[in-house]
TrEMBL record:
It comes from the Bacteria. GO terms for molecular function: lyase activity. Keywords: Lyase. This is ATP-citrate lyase subunit 2 (RTCA cycle) protein.
Length: 70
């Protein structure tokens, strides 16, 4: 369409949550180097009803490390 949609970028999940406190879904497209830490930060911040992580290369041992929070 002819309309532009501006999507803000934030350096941290905390900054994003502060700017958009009504957001309750996290879509994590981080690289394998950052996806785990971004997810752990989001779990610590709280307030998300759903999280979707799309990243290759996160070791299985890390994905199972926080299984009780899943």
């Amino acid at each position: 369409g002819p309309d532009e949609v501006m999507i803000p970028l934030f350096k941290t999940t905390a900054e994003a949550k502060e700017a958009q406190p009504q957001a309750d879904v996290l879509l994590n497209f981080g690289s394998f180097r950052t996806a785990y830490s971004v997810t752990m930060e989001a779990l610590e911040i709280g307030g998300f009803s759903s999280m979707m992580i799309t990243a290759e290369g996160i070791p299985e041992r890390l994905s199972k490390k926080d299984e009780p929070n899943s």
